[in-house]
Amino acid sequence: MNFRKTHIFIWLLLLICACHPDKTKTVDESEIRMQTTDASELYFKNVRQSEYVIEEMPDAGMNVFSLDQLKLVNGLQPVIILNWRNDMAFFFFKQPEDEETMILITINGEKFSLDLANQRNHLELGRKIYNATLNEEEILIGDKPIFSKPESKDSFRRMYFDYLRLVDIR
């Protein structure tokens, strides 16, 4: 009888480990996509959506998900946009109206310039920040640290990971 319980326990442990996504793996540029699946949308709506403030835009077929406590330097606010009509999701940075669309980011001394008028650059900026966060690298926008509070770093990491799950990358 003990052998049977041990056998079941080992199988359950393996099943749990196999279903747990790797939250420490960086994201390669070639992995990025915007297409969602029914399963990933269902998971997001049933499990993760409750963490977010939701702005519904039914005429556009979109919902915008944000974290109130997550604001980055220069007023940047990351959001997840779910276009449920076209089964697509976007990672986007809301900016103050008067802010330039060109953004200069420095990661461990390496400078990148991205024009946020382009949707693909929003994804690229999110990916760079996420990877740098996982690697514990210094991230600056202009000459200021991107995260004003330590908990903002973890909130951003969780939010981007939710996006990766929504587009079925993780």
Report on the structure:
The protein has one domain. The chain has 170 residues and is α+β, with helices and mostly antiparallel strands. The protein contains four helices and eight strands. The longest helix has 18 residues, at 2-19. The chain has a four-stranded antiparallel beta sheet. The model has no long low-confidence stretch (mean pLDDT 88).
Keywords:
globular, alpha+beta, single chain, four-stranded antiparallel β-sheet, 8 strands, 170 residues, 24% strand
Low-pLDDT sequence parts: none
Strand adjacency order, main sheet: 1-2-3-4
Order of helices and strands: HHEEEEEEHEEH
Structural class: alpha+beta
Number of folding domains? 1
Q: Report Rg.
A: 18 Å
| Main pleated sheet | 4 strands, antiparallel
Can you lay out the helices and strands and say which pair or pack?
Elements: H1 2-19, H2 38-48, E1 53-57, E2 62-66, E3 77-83, E4 88-94, E5 102-107, E6 110-115, H3 119-134, E7 139-141, E8 144-145, H4 150-166
Antiparallel strand pairs: 1-2, 2-3, 3-4, 5-6, 5-7, 7-8
Helix pairs in contact: 3-4
